[in-house]
Write a structure and sequence with these properties.
The complex is a heterotrimer. Chain A is mostly helical. Chain A has two domains: 12-132, no CATH class; 137-328 and 370-447, no CATH class. Chain A has 17 helices and no strands. Chain A is globular and about 60 Å long. The two termini of chain A are 27 Å apart. The longest helix of chain B is centred in the N-terminal third of the chain and has 29 residues, at 28-56. Chain B contains five helices and six strands, in the order ααβαβββββαα. Chain B is α+β, with helices and mostly antiparallel strands. In chain B, the strands form two sheets. In chain B, strands 2, 3, 5 and 6 form a four-stranded antiparallel sheet that branches. Chain B has a two-stranded antiparallel sheet with strand order 1-4. Chain C folds into two domains: 2-54, no CATH class; 62-347, Cytochrome-c3 Hydrogenase, chain B (Orthogonal Bundle), CATH 1.10.645. Chain C is 48% helix and 13% strand. Chain C contains 15 helices and eight strands. In chain C, strand 2 (38-44) and strand 3 form a beta hairpin. The two termini of chain C are 29 Å apart. The relative contact order of chain C is 0.18. Classes of the chains: A mainly alpha, B alpha+beta, C alpha+beta. Chains in contact: A-B, A-C, B-C. Chains B and C meet through helix 1 of B and strand 3, helix 3, helix 6 and helix 7 of C.
């Protein structure tokens, strides 16, 4: 029997399928591209000298001497912050789409595929829904803390964007204590978790908050020590410095140049997973035990902030690992001198410089997305560890491992000549490639081992 | 068994969970081997688990994209024994009321009467099945001598009002259905299963108020 | 709030408490309690002092309904006593009434009962191990298990017309014979299943985190298991080699050759959660062996013994026990000569498992409680009926 919904109009995208595709393309490519272009255009300009020079050359205005110069600098900073926050939000949304589709196919089902082409607009719909939802606060909750808790987490999420380099010059600022700064500010997220757990006045939320605090605080230590390994190898705390000390080719990446760095990479990634509350360490929000843990009582926009923090944190984790260990934005074949020479004279650089920048941003994005995919893959494969096992993993395995890597790297830097690093680089690269190939072969064999299964990419 | 609250020994910290094995200190080489054995186990089992999950990405998902992206109507893809909505072919109903007796939850209501025009003939004046209560168990189908009542493969029966889910197979008590007399040695000429139901449901509109499908009859419950 | 605290205090029978302890309700709405069961838990931080199950949220009076509905009409209700292993619920009732009447199902019906039952056991164990993996945190194995279970659902749908509440058995036999070509489909599925379980083992059974979460957790010793009346995989996981199919044979099971998996304490102690989990995985393999043998040796004949439509057994009582997926399912029927039972009692495996949870809950962590409940394969409709 034909079921009509009693409404006169079906949705716009059902009536005009091409519109769905256009809107999807706009959201999928237009908006991120716009943000990237804005980042590339605005971020390098964001120093007082460049702003002064720009004001002088284009508007014939002496900004350096003007009493309003701080106002102009502030406006530019706000613009930069606007771009960074937008990037976080868009990335958070897009990564939920990627996660739902990837998780769907791994679980032998399809993820969202009706809202927009390939279900891409599902996150937009979710975001709009969250904003429009009723804002409930439990009657016995601590009002001020409850309202303020998500913003602590958001601050902890957004601050690392200040030093994360999207490309060779697309970085908000290149602090000379970049790594130290990042380790310090990511701890803000735990304040949000703890405060929300306490202020919700719900036992479940409290469980989640306490677990979260214990987890993030414990894992700060191996994370911090493992992040010191590339600092030792590069000799500087500045993130751009560390990236410049690596090269484009895989054997020039820090992860392969030193066996201790190889181990430290895995320790850093594991600790990052724990700090970001991703499975196998998602105890603070263990869905099957605590029913959403520390953000159980949240709804509407505040919940959207918590969720955005969790997903956009993946970008920070992956981005850090990529810049410190996997060569960051270094493109194979483009060296430092080429960047500098392409800069040219004058305020606006030559088009070659822009091409190099776009390439570097592309390389960074590809590497980070590959790592984000790995995080998603880990989440949907592994079970969750228990609280005491998480603690014992941290203190008995990761902390000694991290210390060992640190000391070995120290000795390596002192004792081993540079050619040793090159040899290790090539050996470890080839070894990793071999393992990767074996893994893919094993994956293919999995399908053959089960009777009745075959490769079939249909049913989207 | 009232247990007293035991305070821990370390300044009020809770008692640690009960240990299962008494931890004897095994010799150092064993412990070192166990330590690295744990790490090796982790790597090995993660490798296998991750390769299984990745391999699922290239297999066909089993999702059936109902209702609009299937090759056929889903109701036509179901096996023939599927116990969907009930259908009664009144032209072969013998009025024995075995189905009403067999139903454990009394969703079938049959009323019979003498035919006013023909005293030798009895007629069925009411045959109501309350599909909203039916549990699709199939106990009514078995005792039917002619196979008049059958489960079809239809399952979509959304109506706006619950009362509309009472299917009246004798819609007008003024036009009752006569008892069918089965012919010995021949199967009853029942219509193909599902035809009558599909026709009836195509004619009904789901947002119709209850009175269209459920006229005020003599035994309106 | 005041009523809550009185109820909790009543349930826990606690007269004093320390300041650090809180009382949490796990449920009745909770993703991991396998139905609507409330576990009133008194915890000190992460460590539980006591956890007492509070049942009855899903009580539907099914035993009372047995006194209101004639004997043949009660069969669909047995589906609802345990809808995940409905074939066994049907079979237990049918066996009990057959014993009351003194009839026996014909051989072909017994074989078909074994086939349908073992397929249902595989289906139930898929849900059991899949939801156990999800409670431990891995979401993917559940969907994979449900994917395999879909094949069994489709097979049983072809056989009897429904996917969950089968109503397939009748007093004296089964309702329908095997359809054309069904045996071939079943064999194809079993070929797939045997290789699939190896993939399942690689995905989750031996995963280090999974093993670490379950080994040495919730240990039930032999004596305790027998004292508390546990049955089925719970009992066998503790090392007790008892299976009604072999030790109190019924139906066609004496004709089949199969092993009974028993917990061995491979990664921890005998009777821990991992043992119970592993017993279930191995039972799936054994069930597929049984189905193969049954299909190969299927005798010809009737599928239902001659039983009156309006059943009026002589006054008396009878017991029917089957080895359900979740342990022993016992139907005790008392007849007073009329067409409805005088008393119908159902004893299910999950109800017995509720009793041991409080004892196991002393001094464990919240995550362990979830693991224990999952490993006991508790299903709320069985507990409450």
């Amino acid at each position: 029997m034909k079921i009509t919904l009693g409404l006169d109009s079906t949705s716009l995208t059902r009536r005009y399928p091409r519109l769905a595709i256009l809107v999807t393309l706009f959201m999928a490519f237009g908006v991120p591209m716009g943000l990237y272009v804005a980042a590339l255009a605005i971020f390098p300009l964001n120093t007082p000298e460049r702003l002064n020079a720009m004001a002088q050359q284009w508007f014939d205005f002496d900004l350096a001497g003007s009493p309003y110069r701080y106002l102009v600098y502030t406006v530019f900073l706000l613009l930069v912050a606007f771009i960074a926050v937008n990037y976080t939000a868009v990335f958070g949304g897009v990564s939920t789409w990627v996660e739902r589709r990837v998780a769907g196919r791994m679980q032998s089902r399809i993820g969202p595929n009706r809202t927009g082409a390939a279900g891409f607009l599902a996150w937009v719909a979710d975001a709009v829904k969250m904003v429009l939802k009723e804002d409930t606060i439990p009657a016995s909750a601590d009002n001020l803390l409850f309202r303020g808790a998500p913003y602590f987490s958001m601050v902890g999420l957004l601050l690392p964007f200040v030093v994360l380099p999207f490309g060779e010059s697309a970085v908000v600022t290149d602090m000379n204590v970049g790594v130290f700064y990042v380790t310090a500010v990511t701890a803000f997220v735990v304040v949000g978790i703890l405060v929300s757990g306490w202020a919700s006045n719900s036992k479940w939320a409290l469980f989640g908050g306490i677990r979260g605090a214990a987890q993030v605080l414990s894992y700060e230590i191996p994370a911090g020590i493992a992040l010191m390994v590339p600092v030792l190898m590069a000799g500087t705390l500045s993130i751009q410095g560390i990236v410049r000390a690596q090269g484009g080719a895989p054997w020039d990446w820090f992860v392969f140049r030193n066996p201790a760095a190889f181990v430290a990479f895995f320790i850093a990634v594991t600790s990052s997973l724990a700090e970001g509350n991703r499975t196998p360490f998602d105890l603070p929000e263990a869905e099957s035990e605590l029913v959403a843990g520390y953000h159980a009582e949240y709804s509407g926009f505040r919940l959207a902030i918590f969720l955005m923090v969790e997903w956009a944190n993946m970008w920070i984790m992956a981005g850090l690992a990529v810049t410190l260990f996997l060569g960051g934005w270094q493109v194979p074949g483009i060296t430092d001198e080429m960047y500098k020479s392409a800069l040219g004279t004058g305020l606006v650089p030559a088009p070659t410089w822009f091409v190099y920048q776009v390439l570097s941003m592309l390389v960074f994005a590809i590497k980070t997305w590959a790592l984000v995919f790995t995080f998603i893959w880990l989440r949907w494969t592994l079970p969750r560890v228990r609280v005491d096992q998480m603690m014992s993993l941290c203190w008995k395995y990761l902390v000694p491992g991290a210390f060992l890597c640190f000391i070995v790297t120290l000795l390596w830097q002192i004792l081993v000549p540079p050619v040793g690093a090159t040899i290790t680089g090539i050996v470890l690269t080839l070894g990793t490639l071999a393992l990767l190939v074996k893994f893919l072969v094993d994956t293919r064999r999995n399908i053959d081992k089960v009777k009745g299964e075959h490769v079939d990419l249909s049913n989207w | 068994m009232a247990e007293e609250t035991q305070k821990g020994t370390l300044g009020g910290f809770p008692n640690p969970p009960a240990k299962v094995r008494v931890e004897q200190s095994s010799p150092l080489p064993t412990r070192v081997r166990e330590y690295f054995g744990h790490i090796a186990d982790v790597v090995k089992t993660f490798w296998e688990g991750l390769s299984v999950t990745l391999s699922y990405m290239v297999r066909r998902p089993i999702t059936v994209q109902y209702p609009d992206r299937t090759e056929k109507r889903v109701a036509d893809m179901l096996p023939s024994r599927y116990r969907g909505l009930l259908e009664v072919d009144m032209s072969v109903c013998t009025g024995c009321m075995a189905c009403e007796r067999a139903c454990p939850i009394s969703v079938i209501k049959v009323s019979t009467d003498k035919d006013p025009t023909n005293p030798k003939q009895r007629v069925i004046t009411q045959f109501d099945i309350d599909e909203s209560k039916c549990m699709f168990c199939g106990l009514c189908v078995e005792p039917c001598p002619t196979g008049a009542i059958q489960h079809t493969r239809e399952f979509e029966s959304t109506m706006k009002s619950v009362d509309s889910l009472v299917f009246r197979w004798v819609p007008d008590p003024e036009k009752p259905a006569p008892f069918y007399r089965p012919v010995k040695g021949q199967d009853a000429p029942r219509a193909p299963v599902g035809e009558i139901l599909r026709k009836k449901m195509a004619e009904a509109s789901w947002i119709a108020p209850a009175s269209i499908l459920v006229p005020d009859g003599p035994n309106k419950d | 709030m005041a009523i809550d605290m009185q109820l909790d205090r009543h349930i826990l029978r606690r007269t004093e408490s320390s300041d650090e302890e809180i009382v949490v309700n796990f449920g009745p709405q909770h993703p991991s309690t396998h139905g609507v069961i409330n576990f009133v838990t008194q915890t000190n931080g992460e460590v539980i002092r006591r956890s007492v199950p509070d049942i009855g949220y899903l009580h539907r009076g099914l035993e009372k309904i047995g006194e209101q509905v004639p004997y043949p009409g009660y069969m669909p209700f047995t589906d609802r006593i345990d809808y995940l292993a409905a074939m066994f619920a049907n079979e237990g009732y049918a066996v009990a009434i057959e014993r009351l009447l003194g009839v026996e199902a014909p051989p072909r019906a017994k074989y078909i009962r074994a086939i349908a039952g073992e397929l249902c056991r595989i289906s139930n164990h898929f849900i059991s191990v899949g939801t156990m993996a999800q409670d431990i945190g891995a979401a993917t194995p559940l969907t994979h298990a449900l994917r395999e279970r879909e094949s069994i659902n489709d097979l049983l749908e072809e056989l009897c017309g429904a996917r969950l509440t089968f109503n397939y058995h009748r007093i004296g036999g089964v309702a329908f014979d095997l359809p054309e070509g069904w045996a071939v489909k079943v064999l194809r599925f079993l070929d797939h299943l045997d290789s699939y379980i190896q993939e399942w083992d690689r995905l989750i059974t031996f995963n280090k985190i999974f093993v670490k979460r379950l080994a040495n957790v919730g240990i039930i010793t032999r004596e305790k298991a027998i004292d508390y009346g546990l049955a089925g995989p719970n009992l066998r996981g503790s090392g007790v080699n008892w299976d009604i199919r072999r030790d109190m044979p019924y139906g066609a099971y004496p004709d089949f050759d199969f092993d009974i998996p028993v917990g061995t304490g491979r990664f921890g102690t005998v009777g821990d959660c991992w043992d119970r989990y592993f017993v279930r995985v191995r039972e799936m393999v054994e069930s597929s062996k049984i189905v193969r043998q049954a299909l190969a040796k299927l005798p010809e004949g009737d599928i239902q013994a001659k039983v009156a439509r309006k059943l009026k057994p002589d006054a008396g009582e009878a017991v029917g026990r089957v080895e359900s997926a979740r342990g022993e399912m016992l139907y005790y029927v008392v007849s007073d000569g009329s067409e409805k039972a005088y008393r119908l009692r159902v004893r299910t495996g999950s109800f017995m498992a509720m009793g041991i949870i409080e004892e196991l809950s002393h001094g464990i962590m919240v995550a362990d409680l979830i693991a224990i409940i999952a490993s006991l394969d508790v299903v709320a409709p069985e507990v409450d009926r």
